[in-house]
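User: Please fill in residues for this 538-position structure.
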């Protein structure tokens, strides 16, 4: 293991590991997804399924993935070669499109330094002249049409939305420049592996918390803020009887904890063998969930202020995802004194939340490939060239996302590429491989050997029974309740786009059984001999 660690490199200190993992797991899901899910699914009552599933799914799976990486000192594919060769078909379910959100936020940040925020008025060349405007002098909302200046800035100025995915249009050069800047930053963050990414995390991981604290203090002092917080936390216990609420909570756990993505395995593989990953697991999961809870106050205090200023209820302005980040929140900050300052704070936070997650995704992919072909990519100069090739080729591919039809591609990848079908299936495969094939008792012995602390029997129950069962239920319900993706309830994708979406989903799901079947066919020996060989740890 020492020789292997020397070839691959290790974290310079425990602090770097904690900062990089914290930066990875604390991301956009905490800010733009969790608060809205909480409001939508029963307010404070949503914390019951969220907290319960964090305990029985989130923490045990987090420990499993980080421990597998630390024990094997391998990337996401080769780690299974050592523990369960039959499971090598498991692929990373990652948000490969994550960088485009960083690109949008970077462009908004640039616009935030203007004396007049462009999304605060309807007197721009891209405006249709039929928008909803708030008159700060009379404290009245002038309803001319159902759209808003912020919506028109987002759709017509930033995205330049075409009529559909069939019409990609031209590349938006401003977004392309922001994309180039993002990939350049990513390259120099990871070009030396964990030696460089660990240093970058000293700034990118803690700084969003500074911005979050500033926005929290500002939000809580705004008029109407507590109305928004009331909507955020008011418990509607009847919602707990709705199965969809529990499914949403489980999906959020997998998403925000970065589970089944492969990144936790990779980051853990750069630890020393005797690092206390058991303790790290509890601290990082608590940090993640705590950040989500606090972010809800930041978001809904501002939404409450916006509703108060417009004379409407909070549910009329509540949004999630890109709609929250690029329409509702900028529109709200434009109503505050010193709007430029608050807008800069918000988009700086958004950029830094995405930066960590993005370079960890790329680093995880590079590590996984390098571990598959160590002689090719471990040499110092070759490694830097390989990273450069990955970044340049990814930049060229992502140019499709900054075209006029790029938002349709983004939504398609978001809906199908990182769907809970992939997450649930990978969670089942990981638990079967570790809990049943490798052996939960053997794995607990390994964790005790590494950390000096033996996981309780509760973790074995989760790995063997609870997580696979809950994941299977969620998997089946998704297929039963599946509905085609639509944008703004009016745009329906062509059939070939839906086929492409399902291809993205099934490419990860089917790889596991196809790889297993291929290995069974290609390995010499009887069925019993082959089975024993492929199920034995190396």
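Assistant: Residues filled in for all 538 positions:
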């Amino acid at each position: 293991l020492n020789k292997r660690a020397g070839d691959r490199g290790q974290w310079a200190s425990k602090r770097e590991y904690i900062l990089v993992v914290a930066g990875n797991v604390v991301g956009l899901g905490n800010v733009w997804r969790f608060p809205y899910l909480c409001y939508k699914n029963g307010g404070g009552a949503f914390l019951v399924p969220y907290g319960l599933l964090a305990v029985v799914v989130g923490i045990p799976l987090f420990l499993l993935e980080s421990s597998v990486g630390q024990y094997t000192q391998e990337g996401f594919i080769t780690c299974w070669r050592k523990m369960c060769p039959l499971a090598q078909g498991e692929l990373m379910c990652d948000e490969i499109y994550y960088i485009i959100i960083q690109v949008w936020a970077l462009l908004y940040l640039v616009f935030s330094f203007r004396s007049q925020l462009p999304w605060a008025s309807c007197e721009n060349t891209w405006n249709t002249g039929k928008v909803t405007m708030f008159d700060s002098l009379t404290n009245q909302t002038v309803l001319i049409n159902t759209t808003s200046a912020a919506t028109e800035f987002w759709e017509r100025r930033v995205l330049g939305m075409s009529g559909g995915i069939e019409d990609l249009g031209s590349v938006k050069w401003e977004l392309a420049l922001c994309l180039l800047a993002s990939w350049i930053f990513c390259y120099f963050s990871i070009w030396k592996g964990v030696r460089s990414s660990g240093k970058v995390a000293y700034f990118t991981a803690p700084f969003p918390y500074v911005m979050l604290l500033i926005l929290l203090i500002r939000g809580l002092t705004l008029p109407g803020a507590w109305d928004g917080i009331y909507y955020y936390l008011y418990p509607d216990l009847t919602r707990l009887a709705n199965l969809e609420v529990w499914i949403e909570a489980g999906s959020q756990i997998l998403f925000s904890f970065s589970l089944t993505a492969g990144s936790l395995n990779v980051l853990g593989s750069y630890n020393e063998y005797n690092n206390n990953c058991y303790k790290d697991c509890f601290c990082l999961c608590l940090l993640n969930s705590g950040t989500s809870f606090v972010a809800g106050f930041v978001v809904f205090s501002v939404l409450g202020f916006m509703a108060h200023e417009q004379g409407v209820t909070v549910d009329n302005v509540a949004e999630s995802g890109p709609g929250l980040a690029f329409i509702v929140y900028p529109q709200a900050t434009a109503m505050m004194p010193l709007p430029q300052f608050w807008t800069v704070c918000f988009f700086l936070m958004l950029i830094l939340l995405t930066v960590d997650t993005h370079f960890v995704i790329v680093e995880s992919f590079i590590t996984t490939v390098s571990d598959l072909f160590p002689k090719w990519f471990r040499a110092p100069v070759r490694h830097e060239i390989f990273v450069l090739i990955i970044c340049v080729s990814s930049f060229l591919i992502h140019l499709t996302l900054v075209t006029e039809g790029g938002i349709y591609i983004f939504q398609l990848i978001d809906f199908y590429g990182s769907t809970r079908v992939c997450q649930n299936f990978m969670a089942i495969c990981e638990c079967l491989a570790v809990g049943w094939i490798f052996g939960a008792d053997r794995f607990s012995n390994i964790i005790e050997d590494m950390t000096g602390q033996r996981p309780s029997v509760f973790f074995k129950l989760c790995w063997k029974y609870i997580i696979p069962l809950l994941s299977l239920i969620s998997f089946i319900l998704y297929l039963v309740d599946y509905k085609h993706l639509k944008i703004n309830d009016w745009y329906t994708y062509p059939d070939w786009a839906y086929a492409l979406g399902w291809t993205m989903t099934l490419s990860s799901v089917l790889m596991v059984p196809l790889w297993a079947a291929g290995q069974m066919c290609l390995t010499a020996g009887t069925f019993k001999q082959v089975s024993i060989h492929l199920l034995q740890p190396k």
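For context: Strands lie at 132-135, 140-143, 486-487, 491-492.
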